[in-house]
TrEMBL record:
UniProt xrefs under PANTHER family: CARBON DIOXIDE CONCENTRATING MECHANISM PROTEIN CCMM, CARBOXYSOME ASSEMBLY PROTEIN CCMM
Name of the protein in question: Carbonate dehydratase
N-terminal signal peptide: none
UniProt-listed Pfam families: Hexapep
Organism: Echinimonas agarilytica
Length: 186
């Protein structure tokens, strides 16, 4: 469901994207080409800063936002999700936040007030709060990364996790095509 926010902004969605009918996309949201938005996802750009302004939530091309994901932002801060990125089931991305290209964020993970570098893999049940991750870092399952966390104890992304991330993106491209074909035949 696409809907306006209280300031009158309506989502801008590429014709080549697929948004599940149960998802809610509200306000100043930009969804680019070939994006998959899964069931019960909520992407909501509706809060303003002290000056009454807000930045957009941008979901870049070839990205998938899976079932039950919530993307929101405090006080109108920007959120950008990069190209070919996967946000897995029930994760929360809360702005201000930037997730670069080719990132995988695993099930039930939370990212807040951070920049996640290109090619990072954040596994399931992790929290990244207030600390930027450099390119190609691997956050193991159930790890909390925040102020004072020693990034030197995190390794680079192993090749098998990069391959897994690429396979998830590919699978979701197929879903976009399949669901769009079904929607067009109704």
């Amino acid at each position: 469901m696409l809907r306006k926010n209280p300031t009158g902004h309506m989502p801008q969605v590429s014709e080549s994207a697929f948004i599940d009918p149960t998802a809610i996309i509200c306000g100043k949201v930009i969804i680019e080409d070939n994006v998959f938005i899964g069931p019960y996802a909520v992407i909501r750009a509706d809060e303003v800063n002290e000056q009454g302004q807000m930045e957009a939530i941008v979901i870049k091309r070839d990205t998938n936002i899976q079932d039950g994901v919530v993307i929101h932002s405090k006080a109108g801060a920007s959120v950008t999700i990069g190209e070919r990125t996967s946000i897995a089931h029930r994760s929360i991305i809360h702005g201000p936040c930037e997730v670069k290209d080719d990132v995988f964020i695993g099930f039930n993970s939370v990212v807040f007030n951070a920049v996640v570098g290109e090619g990072c893999v954040i596994r399931h049940n992790c929290v990244v709060d207030g600390l930027d991750l450099p390119q190609s870092f691997h956050v193991p399952p159930m790890t909390n990364v925040g102020a004072g966390f020693d990034l030197n104890c995190i390794s680079k992304v192993p090749p098998e996790y990069s391959a897994f991330s690429e396979s998830v993106v590919s699978a979701n491209h197929t879903l976009v095509k399949g669901y769009r074909r079904i929607a067009n035949s109704l």
